[in-house]
Specification:
about 45% helix; alpha/beta; 5-stranded mixed beta sheet; 5 strands; N-(1-d-carboxylethyl)-l-norvaline Dehydrogenase, domain 2; about 230 residues; 2 domains
Length: about 230
Amino acid sequence: AVQRGKMTEDQMKATIALVDGTTELDAFSDCDIVIEAIAEELEIKLDYFRQLDTIAPRHAILASTTSSLPVISLAAATERPEQVAGMHFFNPAPVMKLVEVVKTVRTSEETADAVFALAGKLGKHPVVCPDRAGFIVNALLFPYINDATRMLESGYATAEDVDTAMKLGCGHPMGPFALADIVGLDVSLQIIQTLYQEFRDPYYAPAPMLEHLVTAGFLGRKTKRGFYTY
């Protein structure tokens, strides 16, 4: 940010001074809100929330940045389900303004209001959504990517032509394949699988090509190959 002229050297140092790094969960024993952002795997998150529940103060809110997992499952792992909510940031978080504030059937209005207010203080634009797979954005976005993959594997159109059509025809900043390569094909597949598992609708069944690419280790930009080669 300093190199790009977004902030001064002094501003950078002042910002870094606000951050305390730790690898110990006990450091969360005096927090008012804890925002979890660990691996997008339910069992790992459940174990983390169980531990946080015994460490964080009783008044503390526990929030998750999960992009698709059921927040109610995390809430049920604690003794404070009314104080658990989703707080889904979008990548890259420093740039993207949207935050989805996810309310479960147990989330209290006070908790939802506090998370909503915190997002606003962080300079984000929060929206409230129910606790269902994909929330708002991913419930619309990843079926679109999945449909594009079906179109590609059927030979209907090339990846390049689909991406160009969606950019020039719909005004999207990038097409579905370029976007999936940035997000990660493994992440895309995980979200689509979560949608399918919740709704049991064949429409959400992952495209075989996407599954095969992930199995082959072609995960997008991070592996130098996905729908495109980098």
